[in-house]
Amino acid sequence: MVGSDASAQSEVLFENPFHIEDLQIFDAETMRDMLACSHAQLSSRMLADSLHNVSSALIMRIMQGVPEAQRDQFQQELQQPLSSEEIDQARNQTLNTLFWELIYWKTPELYEELTVGERLHEGIFQSIQSDLKDKVVLDAGAGSGRASFEYLRYGATRVHAVEPSPGLLRLLRKKIIDRGLEQSMFPAAGRFNKLPLADQCVDTALSCSAFTALEDQGGEAGLLELRRVTRPGGKIIIVWPRTEDHQWFGEHGFQYVSLPVQEEMCVHFRSFDSAVRCARLFYAHNPAVLRYLQQTHKPEIPFSIIGMNPPRDYFWLAV
Ligand SMILES: C[S@@+](CC[C@H](N)C(=O)[O-])C[C@H]1O[C@@H](n2cnc3c(N)ncnc32)[C@H](O)[C@@H]1O
């Protein structure tokens, strides 16, 4: 069957660069959120199975994130006898599930290399300009600032850039200093469900390619927080939402805007080498991407080849 051939091939193509000990990078809050998320594929059973024969430092670290009520059961799962194949399988699943979080926390430079190429449709900022110009805004899940700097460019007076990954925050802080923007952009560590901001202190709360319906990436608690920090009459704007969350945003009263495109949108990498490196790492599940690069020898890939909705849409909600 074509489908199973394709998935077997992608299994072979994808090599997760992370090791189970890399999970030590996460702080307790992040680990707790990831384990508490009922929709997440990371179950405490899968995690426990992948932690056989790891360092005691890692076990202690993970334990800090396991909710009190689940600790006894987690301990028992850690003691279950497992074959080395079962442990390897659980590790692969865990590392694949946490792939993006590990990228943000462990290899932020690689994520930066990708986002430099994934340019957001200019029409998004033109269309929301009245919610940016002379406004105080929040960029939640700001990463290394791809959207945050655009908000300033479109006239925001202050941008509060909140991001949980220390590595991405470091890159963001460096850019702020390099560009002399210390008086207008304020980076801070934080998560959607506990934003480090006072009630009603921003005119517009934005999140670009970060807020989702999943509880560990926003969800109901995250939306309540975005509402809390936005002043009445302000807006919440979710840029480049996941396609699978469209219904959730609609059910929560958001309006959808998709900008027209003249010609197909592409990811534009710094160089051909960078395109190949990123394709091997980020799009390895999709062999068509590497094939496309080998055929064209250009440092760009259409979003349609990647199989992704291009960054040209947003949801908005009046508060
Ligand atoms: C796809 S990146 C987008 C980053 C940035 N907004 C951009 O457009 O480049 C998703 C970001 O959301 C952050 N993130 C993940 N979970 C989060 C949470 N619970 N609260 C806040 N940010 C979160 C990640 O650390 C990462 O920086």
Overview of this protein structure:
By secondary structure, the protein is α/β, with parallel strands linked by helices. It folds into 2 domains: 18-99, Flagellar motor switch protein FliG, alpha-alpha superhelical domain (Annexin V, domain 1, Orthogonal Bundle), CATH 1.10.220; 113-318, Rossmann fold. Helices cover 46% and strands 15% of the residues. It contains 16 helices and 9 strands. It has helices at residues 2-13, 28-36, 44-50, 56-65, 71-79, 84-97, 99-106, 108-117, 122-127, 148-153, 166-178, 219-229, 246-251, 272-282, 287-296, 303-306, and strands spanning 136-140, 158-163, 185-189, 202-208, 230-239, 255-258, 266-268, 300-302, 313-318. Strands 3-2-1-4-5-9-6 form a 7-stranded mixed β-sheet. Helix 3 crosses helix 5 (71-79). The termini are far apart. Mean pLDDT is 91; it is low at 1-13. The site of S-adenosylmethionine has 20 residues, from loops. Pfam families: Methyltransf_25.
